[in-house]
Design a protein that fits this description.
Blueprint (H helix, E strand, L loop, with lengths): L1 E8 L2 E8 L10 E2 L3 E9 L1 E5 L2 E5 L4 E4 L4 E5 L6 E8 L1 H11 L12 E2 L3 H14 L7 H17 L12 H14 L7 H8 L3 H12 L3 H19 L4 H7 L5 H12 L3 H6 L2
Antiparallel strand pairs: 1-2, 2-9, 3-8, 4-7, 4-9, 5-6, 5-8, 7-10
Helix pairs in contact: 1-3, 2-3, 2-7, 5-6
């Protein structure tokens, strides 16, 4: 594992963490020093802690309380990359009080936030900053992420239902395939067939494991890729939309605005 400090402030820091572990490597126990929120930028891994077990996929956010023991594994694929934000307990507790988030001062009670629209823009910004492709105001992003995570987690409840056998492995393979080729046609029937499940069971299993439906996951992966390309190359918006799997520019513009709050052209011009 390689960790590179990106920025730090009074009570927080953020690091670019790259892990190259794979199925051949045994996980080991670790302990968080402070409250942690890690945005997954690439790859996937299994996260286990006192808060529960969750599959971490791009766009999701790993959550941890101060001094929480945890274990990360790569049973079904190799490597991941995260923008890992750590907050001192005093900073976290003061922020929770300032943001007036009920029930969060004692910490999180779920291990993960799924890749939702509320996290998409922060994921893109963190990815650009980690790769050196954008000038990120890390202090603002650290604060926005912490408050967003508190609010989203305060309304979430842990899911203790057991998963079907091999469910996590099947979904991990599908997720990694989508992230390698987000532009490929990925309808429910095709994805279910690749996973070896009926469409009905695949839909239920995928949503249980990732927290979102297959369509939402594919759409969000394409939109994050398009947003990154808009900020890193000067190609035409229509070409970027087509390259990222959108067959209709009007649908792309509408989906992009819904996800990020602005049009693709405005997003490209934001400092």
């Amino acid at each position: 594992m390689r960790s590179r400090l990106l920025a730090s402030g009074d009570g927080w820091d953020v690091a670019d963490v790259i892990c190259t572990s794979g199925p051949q490597d045994r996980p080991y126990d670790e302990r968080h020093a402070g409250y942690a929120m890690a945005i997954v930028l690439a790859g996937s891994f299994q996260y286990r802690s006192g808060l529960g077990r969750a599959l971490m996929t791009p766009g999701s956010v790993m959550l941890a309380n101060d001094r929480l023991c945890f274990e990360c594994g790569h049973e079904h694929g190799e490597g991941d990359r995260c923008a890992s934000f750590t907050y001192a307990p005093e900073y976290f507790e003061r922020l929770a009080a300032d943001a007036d988030v009920p029930g969060i001062r004692e910490g999180f009670n779920v291990p993960r936030l799924p890749p939702t629209a509320a996290l998409s823009l922060m994921t893109v910004r963190a990815g650009l900053g980690a790769s050196g492709s954008g000038d990120v105001a890390w202090d603002e992003l650290a604060l926005r992420l912490a408050v967003s995570a508190m609010r989203l987690a305060s309304g979430a409840s842990p899911d203790s239902r057991p998963l079907p056998a091999n469910a996590e492995a099947r979904v991990t393979r599908t997720v990694r395939r989508i992230d390698r080729h987000p532009d490929a046609i990925s309808g429910l029937d095709a994805l279910a067939g690749e996973a070896g499940l009926s469409p009905y069971h695949f839909l239920r299993t995928f949503e249980r494991v990732t927290g979102v439906t297959p369509h939402q996951y594919v759409q969000r992966a394409r939109l994050r890729e398009a947003a990154t390309r808009l900020r890193t190359n000067s190609g035409k918006v229509v070409d970027i939309a087509l390259d990222c799997g959108f067959g209709d520019i009007s649908n792309f513009n509408r989906a992009f605005r819904t996800e990020f709050g602005v049009s693709p052209r405005v997003f490209r011009s934001i400092p």
